[in-house]
Amino acid sequence: MSVKLFDSERKIMNVLWKEGDCTAKYISDVLKEEVGWNMNTTYTLIKRCIKKAPSNGRNRIFCDLAWNDCQVPLAPEEQAFVQTSIRLSCMENAKLVQSHYTGQPEEDPMIDERLLPKQTADGTACCDLYCQFFWHIADRDQLTVRQRDQAAGGLLAAVWNFCEETDLNEVPDLTKEEVVSLLGDLAREYSTDLITLSVREDGIGFETMDKRELRY
Question: 97: closest CA among 163, 13, 173?
Fold first, then answer.
């Protein structure tokens, strides 16, 4: 099966293939600068690309939440679950469309996660973490969306919890190698027989700054 993309739709996909996980607004901002499209034009083309992806129920979820078109109000925990499903499904669909378009084997989807910089109140010490997570599904017929979201979503939540709970006084003593090892351990912890989560050292950025000892 091949998927035919028009030049305008290809511009949408090129942004996704280049930038990875990104919002519709980000795609709109990029294409407004590159080709002068307004937001409505870009959003319409994004919808077309979604419809051209192999059909499944998750595409409907993406449209509903992205355009605030849900049929019923969602509680915060429900919205968080749906947002996780959207994020993961969007990346899977993008890789699937890319494979159909290029004729190359489908690549494992990836999420870029940039955590908000953490710093002391006076700004004299801070840390910044950026990481890329990949997941591989052994058998799509066996893995449910819920199982995928529990694994990948659980890993993302664990990384955020690590950053929230880590004492900033301890951060300057951490090395990038230690952070890579920690993230690798978390990826293995949330992997199952049906889905394998992984991190790559070259996809992790960890920077710290500590000027507290320089204060007089």
Answer: 13
